[in-house]
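The freezer alarm interrupted the setup, so I double-checked each line after restarting. Inputs confirmed:
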Amino acid sequence: MAAAAELTLLEKSLGLSKGNKYSAQGERQIPVLQTNNGPSLTGLTTIATHLVKQANKEYLLGSTAEEKAIVQQWLEYRVTRVDGQSTKEDLRTLLKDLNSYLEDKVYLTGHNFTLADILLYYGLHRFINDLIAWETLHRLPPASLKPHTHHRLPAIACPEPADHCALPSWVLALLCSLAL
Amino acid sequence: MRLFVSPGSPGSLPVLAAAGRARGRAELLISTVGPEECVVPFLARPKVPALQLDGGNYLFSTSAICRYFFLLSGWEQDDLTNQWLEWEATELQPVLSAALYYLVVQGKKGEDVLGPVRRALTHVDQSLSRQNSPFLTGETESLADIVLWGALYPLLQDPAYLPDELGALRSWFQTLSTQEPCQRAAETVLKQQGILALRPYLQKQPQPSPPEDKAVSNEPEEEELATLSEEEIAVAVTAWEKGLESLPPRRPQQNPVLPVAGERNVLITSALPYVNNVPHLGNIIGCVLSADVFARYSRLRQWNTLYLCGTDEYGTATETKAMEEGLTPQEICDKYHIIHADIYRWFNISFDIFGRTTTPQQTKITQDIFQRLLSRGFVLQDTVEQLRCERCARFLADRFVEGVCPFCGYEEARGDQCDKCGKLINAIELKKPQCKVCRSSPVVKSSQHLFLDLPKLEERLEEWLGKTLPGSDWTPNARFIIRSWLRDGLKPRCITRDLKWGTPVPLEGFEDKVFYVWFDATIGYLSITANYTDQWERWWKNPEQVDLYQFMAKDNVPFHGLVFPCSALGAEDNYTLVKHLIATEYLNYEDGKFSKSRGVGVFGDMAQDTGIPADIWRFYLLYIRPEGQDSAFSWTDMLLKNNSELLNNLGNFINRAGMFVSKFFGGCVPEMVLTSDDRRLLAHVTLELQHYHQLLEKARIRDALRSILTISRHGNQYIQVNEPWKRIKGDEADRQRAGTVTGMAVNVAALLSVMLQPYMPTVSASIQAQLQLPPPACSVLPTNFLCTLPAGHQIGTVSPLFQKLENDQIESLRQRFGGGQLEESLELKAKASPKPAAEETRKTAGPQEIQTLLEEVTKQGNLVRELKAQKADKNQVAAEVTKLLDLKKQLALAEGKPLETPKGKKKK
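Predicted 3D structure, all chains:
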């Protein structure tokens, strides 16, 4: 998903009515937002953080110093690791790491749903669908699909806490087994 | 909370600085772990620094740890800081970690290290200078500064990697480096060992994947259409409408060209090619062709321009060549000077003067500069221990000695410089020296010589560089080379040689010595000008009014940027010194190097026999000009670029534009009624034209050529979208539209013909003839796109400009010039690392090898004669004769001569 589309989606889910226009910069197509007052902002996580503040939903950035740092850490992880992974081996390590991190957590900060969950979900979405398509193709034994409920993840829509946007461990376990 | 660090991990720098800056280190427990220890339980790979929080969670991102320390001290997050940190993680880190790996683990230096990060450094510098505040996010230093400082510190703490031209970055970096928390972090992490302290850690890391470097690719980049403001469009339209009238009057031609007060006076030199060798394509692009493009551009800007060059004729290599060919050195010079002049004429090089260095003026000016240096105490006299080959009965010039480098142990170091580590060597310091001619070991003998006292001149040089470099267009490699010379400290350099063929030394006791080319080759520019006009001093002793541009390959930088300026400053005669030193990297041939002796590569005199026009050669060489990094000549690429860029893009556009005028409008430019689409095209072309000017003003010749191709791509699209060939058959409005599009297109073609003039002068002239472009528009390139072919203008006969290159044609050329390409690449691989710096692109490699073979033949011949005289065993004689014949065969091959029939034997 192009960064601009992702940000538009985020705007909607944050309840921001007036859509912004984004341009893209350079070969990596980094999104740029021209703000009305002040200089332009460059970069997916920078703009996303800005939008959250605009929507007065600062709680999505974490409430304690610890949470804030963790949110920004996973946002960075999203743009460097998830977007930067190039080989299957990379993807495998990444999913394994995430899976073991989330083993004892509901969301990335622990108990609170944040922007980091949204963007990481968006970022992983394409792999998830790819992998599931791949799995269907290869008719993996159902044993590797732990909870048998969802074979295909819901399409990205408005992320509401406790709905479908967190990355429950089972998704990652599933992904890991597929990527291996 | 507990911070885990590992000795030498670069991430410790920002983390420790942030801890010190934001909260003091009191409550922080620091544990040191090995580089391969997995601290963070959920990460499969080791990652330090990492911070274990009191709640048990971990922060493993360097910036997040820094951010956390700042948050604890009450700092509030803001957009600008987030933007810098995101940029640091996504843009800076990939290139920076590659650069650090090259530097620390692989021991690379210079541009290899700086190249990948240059764009990022420039970005920081520009942001700092644009916002006009001392720190990244405002008036005080904050999180973004600490994170970036920490990331950059390992590299920038070595001044060699902190480019002078990035002044804002430099002062930002220095300010932060002196602050207490940063200073302490640096001491803790680098332990006063400098960059080497990072080695134990970085060695254990996987090599970062090399950052994608756009410049490596010869492919045209996807152009993004810039967004244009209404204002920009309006300005472009106004300029266009003024048309020919707004052209400045043409400069009257003067002869000789002399500086004019109040005008921009541009003096351009290209490195003097060494006379005893036919130049190859690498020599041509590095100097004369690059300088020619700039000279032609300079004239199109109506700057008062003088472009000079000539052959460098003195020295050992000429003497040797003369011996070889049985001529006097003067005869050799005469012969080869003509060969050079012919080649450059064929390539359409627009010298105002192409002179030579063996003239009385050279002697006069060199001796004058020497006398002034001598009387001011800048010349030392000393006894020199010199290598003398007793077998060849002569003192060995540096180039004729080879041995093991005393600094790095490289086995094929030359007598003056090591190709591997680049250090200068005194020939007698070489370990295991060998005479390159006869391979015997030379002995050390002493001889009196003169030295230029460079250490005494260093301060003046620094002062001059300090004034000249900022804001000048010296290429980064030239700045780097000079900076590293200065960092190592200057030493006295010997300026005399035990030779006959050179400028005599006007001093008692030195009658049988001459000046070394180190000292007098660059004085050639002055003497060549003096042979052109007796008012040469108006160019060369006029630093206030003259802008001196010097073009060369990077191996010539020390002579032009350091030795000559030192001589000139010491002579205290108000000499004009180089203002813009433009140095290229090396051009390789296919996958190897140019080599005369192996018959590999295309040499100046052969290019004309290929049937490919000079302009196509010019275009391709300029398209792959080694600007910023080495590049390679490739036959296949040449075919591709000719067929795609010249034929299908540029040629196609210009031809269509002209043909529409001829076919649909009887050769008469139609009325143009501009719509908003046309105005937009006009503004885009104007923007690209201005970009072209910006690049060429900085002598970024290769990049500016891309602007030309971009404009013609816009033009092709414009025609394709508007389909004038269909509209011409439609109703009145459609026909008018066809007219406007055709008129616009042919005007773009006219503009392209002028922009193309520096690159392809013959093609440019034929476009201008086909379009009957009014003469004033042919010789001036304004900064705006003007309507130079107004409605009603009658054009001439339009015909195709370029020919397709066919695969089999190119394949046969590749075979003809390829030589033992495969063998050579195998040989290169066999030598493996380290790759010797492009020796073959130096001027005198070919003759040296021939000379070596020649000496071996003579030696072997003597041996055979001796054996025969001693009436030695027949089998032994026969074996030696076979060796002799073999050597003769190699020599003939190397010289490209037909094989001689062995004499003697056949008589029997």
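Quick read of the result. The two ends of chain B are 98 Å apart (CA to CA).
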